[in-house]
Design a protein that fits this description.
The complex is a heterodimer of chains A (about 200) and B (about 250). By secondary structure, chain A is mainly beta. Chain A has one domain. Chain A has helices spanning about 165-170, 180-195, and strands at about 1-5, 10-15, 20-25, 30-35, 40-60, 65-90, 95-105, 105-115, 125-135, 140-145, 150-160. In chain A, strands 1, 2, 3, 4, 5, 6, 7, 8, 9, 10 and 11 form an eleven-stranded parallel β-sheet that branches. Chain B has helices at about 40-50, 70-75, 95-105, 115-125, 145-160, 175-190, 205-210, 225-250; strands at about 1-10, 15-25, 30-35, 55-60, 65, 80-85, 90-95, 135-140, 160-165, 195-200, 210-215, 220-225. The chains are: A mainly beta (about 200), B alpha/beta (about 250).
């Protein structure tokens, strides 16, 4: 796989014509990411970020026989607006969006709009969002799907939870205090998506 | 080591344990048997300080301290250890990371990473698990038997003094059960510690040879004996065993 290193600009255009992987961390300050995946290419993006106040728009356009996986984990302590727009106009495309986010005292708004066009076949669209609120954080998630064909596999899921008290009790019963236990749970939740989805 | 006196416990306003009494001394193995819903698991949860269980009356002393005044973290650092019937899976939290932090919290010293790694490797060999367990998420994607062995790995690292085993034999195949039993026996023989084993079967008790076997019914211990009591229960069931014992008493 081709390893892509992005420019550290606020607007980034990615035109993918061969199988590629791209890792994005907190050192990037991208506001707009335009992705075009050409025929028969695959792209995996692993995006890990610590956020104070940020807005990110991602537009994805996939052509025939393409695959896109976006694994995004974030910890937001202020305001985060993420908008992802997916357009599947061709056939035999796979699109998987996996988001794990921790909202630590701030507010996170996650919008995904996936559109699968009429007369297309064998497309796959998955939008999975898991958000964890700590310290009175608030999260909103909208995994929208606009499907104009019957020949498609489309799934979406959202969970927004607080720290699981059973997890806390379990870690406390190993001798860890509340702060250490919470940190372990949060970091495990954030790292899990990148490790599991690779 | 542990004294439970007249303990009454409720969950969601329902009394589960009623005037429950039990004393466990150092280097003793106790087994607790009883029908489903008789209160066996409750005693483990209460000892560990599960906030879902409300102590209505009575007291628990452990190593001379009133356990009910201490939080779960402190209880664990004092050497209490619980292996749950169905150990939890925690996504992304690695065994090594959790155990290193727990050891540092227990000893107040930073852990030497090389010694820790050597310790973990030795334990994996001892309990016959792949070394990849060290860096796996806690019980993540593990079978029932693997989860019990994973908890056994934690036990060997943390070296607690009073070990509460809530149906450690459930969901475990015979080979893994033998490994677990032998490992627990080795732990008991090499540490100053005590076990409270909750079980429905004699398999694990055969290996560990408990000093006392207690029968719990309706939240209370109704009979105490030795290993032969467990065999009577296994062969006859609780109801029939009651009748057999009553007939023997009449004769």
């Amino acid at each position: 796989m081709n390893n892509i290193i992005l420019d550290k600009e606020s607007i980034v255009n990615l035109n993918i014509s061969e199988d590629s992987i791209c890792n994005i961390d907190s050192s990037y300050n991208i506001n707009k990411l335009n992705i075009n995946i050409k025929n028969n290419a695959k792209l995996v993006i692993n995006h890990y970020s610590i956020i104070n106040e940020h807005k990110l728009d991602i537009d994805i356009n996939q052509l025939e026989n393409t695959s896109f996986i976006y694994n995004h984990s974030f910890k937001n302590s202020d305001k985060y607006n993420l908008n992802i727009n997916i357009l599947l106009k061709s056939n035999n495309t796979k699109n998987n969006i996996n988001i794990h986010g921790v909202t630590d005292g701030g507010i996170s708004n996650i919008n995904i709009n996936g559109k699968v066009y009429d007369k297309t076949i064998n497309n796959e669209l998955n939008e999975n969002i898991k958000l964890l609120n700590i310290n009175n954080g608030k999260s909103n998630a909208y995994p929208n799907m606009f499907i104009d064909t019957k020949n498609v596999s489309a799934n979406h899921s959202v969970s927004i939870t607080n720290i699981n008290k059973d997890y806390l009790f379990y870690l406390n019963s190993k001798g860890l205090d509340k702060d250490n236990s919470t940190n372990l749970i949060v970091n495990g939740f954030l790292n899990g998506i990148i490790e599991n989805k690779n | 080591m542990l004294e439970i006196k007249n303990l009454t416990v409720s969950v969601l306003n329902k009394i589960i344990l009623k005037d429950f009494n039990l004393i466990i001394n150092e280097n003793e193995i106790h087994a607790l048997m009883g029908l489903n819903g008789s209160g066996k698991s409750t005693i483990c949860k209460v000892l560990m300080g599960d906030p879902n269980y409300k102590v209505e009356s009575g007291y628990i002393y452990y190593k001379g301290k009133n356990l009910l005044e201490l939080d779960t973290t402190y209880r664990a650092r004092m050497g209490l250890y619980l292996v749950n019937q169905t150990p939890l899976e925690i996504e992304g939290v690695k065994n090594s990371e959790m155990l290193r932090l727990a050891l540092e919290a227990q000893t107040g010293k930073s852990v030497n990473i090389f010694e820790f790694s050597k310790l973990m490797n030795n334990i994996c060999e001892k309990i016959k698990v792949d070394k990849s367990f060290i860096h796996r998420g806690i019980n993540e994607n593990m079978s029932g038997g693997e989860r019990k062995k994973n908890e056994l790995m934690h036990l060997w690292v943390l070296e607690p003094d009073l070990i509460l085993l809530d149906e450690i034999d459930s969901g475990v195949d015979i080979d893994n059960l033998n490994t677990i039993s032998e490992s627990l026996k080795e732990y008991f023989d090499t540490h100053s510690c005590s076990f409270l084993i909750i079980t429905h079967h004699t398999n694990i008790l055969k290996k560990l040879n408990p000093n006392y076997v207690h029968i719990i019914d309706n939240g209370k211990i109704i009979e105490t004996g030795d290993y032969s009591l467990a065999e009577t229960i296994e062969n006859n069931g609780f109801n029939r065993a009651n009748k057999v014992r009553k007939n023997l008493n009449h004769e």
